[in-house]
Design goal:
By secondary structure, this protein is of the alpha/beta class. It has helices at 15-20, 58-70, 98-109, 140-157, 171-181, 202-208, 228-240, 254-263, 274-286, 291-305, 315-322; strands spanning 31-37, 44-46, 54-56, 75-80, 114-119, 132-134, 137-139, 161-164, 188-195, 244-248, 268-272, 309-312. It has one domain: Aldolase class I (TIM Barrel, Alpha-Beta Barrel). The strands form 2 sheets. An 8-stranded parallel barrel has the order 1-4-5-8-9-10-11-12, surrounded by 9 helices. Strands 6-7 form a two-stranded antiparallel sheet. Helix 3 (98-109) packs parallel to helix 4 and helix 9 runs antiparallel to helix 10 (291-305).
Length: 325
């Protein structure tokens, strides 16, 4: 059967019909909002390269999390900016660090909101790398113990999910072992399983003050030309005990996201990273694109490729649109 009997345009005729036959839908429940926590009181400090995104002191963070929950967004992921940094990133796994304090405050004030914690040392080390630095090289195995310690601290503070983003080999196993030994076996591990050494992270490094002081992260994050390697990375994290997995960044790696979706049946997320956000914001501000439409199209594309949920700095804006608020 073909034209003229089959006319594909019939199902595109009106907005109502397009909604009726849409194969992919986006709801507030599909979104996670990344947030930056900093020291101080009553702080809401804008980030120049990420218009609309702020650093929050804990009191301000709590109020913002109330708004996030009211929009129907199920959770946030927290990134910490400590008062001081050192070579071993000790503030990243201190029980009195910025993230444990923030977790306790948010869980007390907004108990129904999922609180996820990024597990990495880059925000806390004076050198800006994601682990223990020895003679210019990040020591994989020495870093694992510290990541496990951070995960235990966050879980004890009340975090629902710990999310290792460092890309050290064996980190999921080390974290799972550390959590289980402390009786925290119900804590969920969301692994940044396929995280690429991407140029799209630039604005985040301003937000978290985490630019490496020497070298780069190409020795531990994935090389952008590699596709099959991503499937191996995901498979290893699943074997080590990851409960959920992530592909990062999102739009430049939709092929990887789609392949992971087909290969694995764990809950799958994608991170629409700071550079993706900043480019859409900049294009909208310049009048080159319709910011709202491009935002929604980009999120639908990520969902269509296979993501069950999406980490995005557009979470509040998108939730307000699709949730009718």
């Amino acid at each position: 059967m073909s034209f003229p009997l089959v006319r594909m345009r019939r199902l595109r005729k009106t907005a109502a019909m397009r909604r009726l036959v849409a194969e992919t839908t986006l709801t507030p429940a599909d979104l996670i909002y990344p947030m930056f926590v900093c020291p101080g009181d009553h702080v809401c400090q804008g980030i120049g390269s990420m218009p609309g995104v702020n650093r929050y002191s804990i009191d301000a963070l709590v109020e913002e999390c109330r708004k996030v929950a009211d929009l129907g967004i199920p959770g946030v992921i927290l990134f910490g900016i400590p008062e001081k940094k050192d070579a071993l990133g000790t503030e990243g796994y201190s029980p009195n660090g910025i993230i444990p304090k923030a977790v306790r405050a948010v869980k007390k004030a907004v108990p129904g909101l999922l609180v996820m914690c990024d597990v990495c040392l880059c925000e806390y080390t004076s050198h800006g790398h994601c682990g223990v630095l020895e003679k210019g090289h990040v020591h994989n195995d020495a870093t694992l113990e510290l990541l496990a310690r951070a995960s235990v601290v966050y879980a004890k503070a009340g975090a629902d999910v710990v999310a290792p983003s460092d890309m050290m080999d064996g980190r999921v196993y080390a974290i799972r072992e550390g959590l289980d030994e402390e009786g925290l076996d119900d804590t969920i591990i969301l692994s940044y399983a396929a995280k690429y050494a991407s140029a799209y992270y630039g604005p985040f490094r301003e937000a978290a003050d985490s630019t490496p002081q020497e070298g780069d992260r190409k020795g531990y994050q994935m090389d952008p030309p590699n596709f099959r390697e991503a499937l191996r990375e995901v498979a290893m994290d699943v074997e080590e005990g990851a409960d959920m997995i992530m592909v990062k960044p999102a739009l430049p790696y939709l092929d990887v996201l789609s392949a992971v979706r087909q290969e694995f049946d764990l809950p799958l997320s994608a991170y629409q990273v700071s550079g993706e956000y900043a480019m859409i914001k900049a294009g909208g501000q310049m009048g080159w694109i319709d910011e709202e439409k491009v935002m929604m199209e980009s999120l639908i594309c990520i969902k269509r490729a296979g993501a069950d949920f999406i980490f995005t700095y557009f979470a509040k804006e998108a939730a307000a649109l699709v949730g009718g608020r």
